[in-house]
Design a protein that fits this description.
Protein name: ABC-type quaternary amine transporter
Number of helices: 8
Strand order of the largest sheet: 6-7-8-3-9-10
Keywords: ATP-binding, Nucleotide-binding, Sulfate transport, Translocase, Transport
EC number: 7.6.2.9
Distance between the termini: 38 Å
Bound molecules: adenosine-5'-diphosphate, magnesium ion
GO cellular component, one term: ATP-binding cassette (ABC) transporter complex
Shape: globular
Order of helices and strands: EEEHEEEHHHEHEHEEHH
GO molecular function, one term: ABC-type sulfate transporter activity
Amino acid sequence: MGISVQAVFKQFGDFQALNNVSVDIKSGGLVALLGPSGSGKSTLLRSIAGLETPDSGRIFLTGEDATDRSVQDRNIGFVFQHYALFKHMTVRDNIGFGMRIRKRPEAKIRQRADELLDLVQLSGLGERYPSQLSGGQRQRVALARALAVEPKVLLLDEPFGALDAKVRKDLRAWLRRLHDEVHVTTVFVTHDQEEAMEVADEIVVMNKGKIEQVGTPAEVYDQPASAFVMSFIGPVN
Ligand code: ADP
Ligand code: MG
């Protein structure tokens, strides 16, 4: 499902979090929203998800105006930095939660949960509780849970932000592989240039509530559109 954000503004008090943001995200892509802290990345992601309402502007999903649709009616899965797994539920029940509230038959839920456990390479861990998993494993459960209801779009807000460097690196490669397998349109937020360059097909660079540049990692690196992009993406000093 493609995403089109058109002239979106969002203000919190007198702070302009999104300042005339327009961007098109192709169906099936793996896109990074990259920018420094406070640049509006989460606000943009949350607006796409329906968790924030733009002050003005429109958001289209599959060519249809979804600006006024509820979160539930957008067919979107999301994962945040701090894994919000249910502590008292097993991994399998965490993954099945969204299907269960949609009243899918138990046998189907079980089957799909097992497929997803396989997909995120956690088969055999379905009966564990979140406290018995590593941080990286928990984030993979969160991803499996987001994918369980077959969303058309997957939104990830700094999904690996809370993890240590080694685990982050493993998960990057793993996200790339997962995407190549599932092909769901995926937008992930990061403030880490290297992460964006390594994982994404396309990078959306944000600064101060505006989009500075949209391009492939090579384009953004070789032909920075502004002094900001050059300093933010350029060789680490
Ligand atoms: P980023 O994800 O790039 O760090 P955000 O989109 O979270 O940036 O936010 C940009 C700024 O907008 C934040 O620094 C904060 O000052 C403000 N902001 C975000 N959400 C809220 C909110 N719910 N209420 C008030 N201010 C907010
Ligand atoms: Mg953020």
